[in-house]
Amino acid sequence: MKVVHACYLPLSVDHPDYGKLPRHPGRWVLNLALAQKKHTSIQPELVVQVPGSRRDFSTTVEQIPVHYLATPNRFRSATMFHFDVKSICRKIHSLKPDFVHGHGLEDAYGLAAQRSSLPYVITAQGLHFLINRRIPPPLISRARVVEFTERRCLKKTRDIIAKSDYVAVRLAQQFPHLKIHRIPNTIDPRLLDIREQKNWHVIAFVGTIIPRKGLDLLCDALEVVRLDIPDVALWVFGDYPDLPSEYEQQIKRRLQSILGERVVFHGAMPSLEVARQVAKAGALVAASREEMFGNQLIEALAVGAHAIVTEDTAMAENARRFGEGTIVPQEDHQALAQAIVTTLRNRASGNAVEVRKRILQYMGPEIVALQHDSLYRQLLAKS
């Protein structure tokens, strides 16, 4: 069975625009494709849009065929992703797949899978009807347009994959007609081999610097933490040093005023290297206001790091599932500060071996690959 994944993926090192354009750092779909290729008869290929690129480029990433599509960097949401969908569908049809898997509704991927006229499923991620509730955007904005296209797509969809119970419950409440399939992301198995010496004065943040990720709350917390731990340091992974938003610039200035040289901005790095660095930190801190799954939490737990996460997110759900991590209330910088101080002072460290075992049992590559294979075949039989 040939399956095309329409999805995000970092640029490959041989891409003409590698290092020139900011890209989504997530490789979870590549992890899935690798698992499918190894553990099933699925032949996966990836189709990835590259806003700002001027040429299409096909390559192989870790033995998986990947097709990068050049896309204008402006007016995409203004057209409700009309031209993006056409471009993706054109490429999908040229590959002649048996099945299409669209990853996410916050861009054109889910829409393209739906409009491909081929058997398909969509994975729900970055849901704007949830994000916009927590962080209301301007009336005229990309976020409002995405919520509109997202709702329209979901109303026409029958089967959808939810990576967490958190997402599944909220989808069922808003769209009761959906048939929701609970399948988590899988992991890069190389994470399980990482072992590093801890720096117990360091905390790490992984993700883009946007309001949803709660870096402003972390700033408030660090003002308190430094009174107890004067040498506390922060490593940030995922910022955009060349094209920072106004919010990112404000956060960076504030962190530098609080920590001085003890804050280090690493920018975008390969995910395995990020994991190695996180393994060295005393804790991963993720104060997200909204999080649909939280790959950064899973990867931190897989490399033996303690994680501090916020309640009412899928991260809290997974921290409870794997029995590791500290959960703090939303919008409570005092509780966040106390969790950081307690973790660093007590050198909090759970049973890493047992946690890794639980992760593999729940979302190991073979398990997740077989779950997708079963679902694809079920949907193909219906079509």
How would you characterize the overall build of this protein?
It is a single chain. This protein is of the alpha/beta class. Helix 1 packs across helix 14 (365-382), helix 7 (215-228) packs parallel to helix 8 (246-259) and helix 13 runs parallel beside helix 14. It folds into 2 domains: 2-186 and 364-382, 3-Layer(aba) Sandwich (Rossmann fold), CATH 3.40.50.2000; 189-360, Glycogen Phosphorylase B (Rossmann fold, 3-Layer(aba) Sandwich). It has an 8-stranded mixed β-sheet, sandwiched between helices. It is built from 14 helices and 14 strands.
Features:
14 strands, 383 residues, globular, 2 domains, 20% strand, Rossmann fold, alpha/beta, 8-stranded mixed sheet
| SS class | alpha/beta
Counting structural domains, the number is 2
- Name the CATH homologous superfamily of the largest domain: Glycogen Phosphorylase B
The helix-strand sequence is EHEEEHEHEHHEHEEHEHEHEHEHEHHH
Question: Could you give a short description of this structure?
Answer:
The protein is 43% helix and 20% strand. The chain is built from 14 helices and 14 strands.
Could you outline the blueprint of secondary structure elements for this entry?
Elements lengths: L1 E5 L21 H12 L3 E9 L5 E5 L2 E8 L10 H14 L3 E5 L5 H7 L4 E5 L3 H7 L7 H15 L2 E4 L2 H10 L4 E4 L16 E8 L8 H14 L4 E5 L8 H14 L3 E3 L5 H10 E6 L8 H8 L3 E5 L3 H9 L3 E3 L4 H14 L5 H12 L1 H18 L1
Parallel strand pairs: 1-2, 1-5, 2-4, 5-6, 6-7, 7-8, 9-10, 9-12, 10-11, 12-13, 13-14
Antiparallel strand pairs: 3-4
Helix pairs in contact: 1-14, 2-3, 7-8, 7-12, 13-14
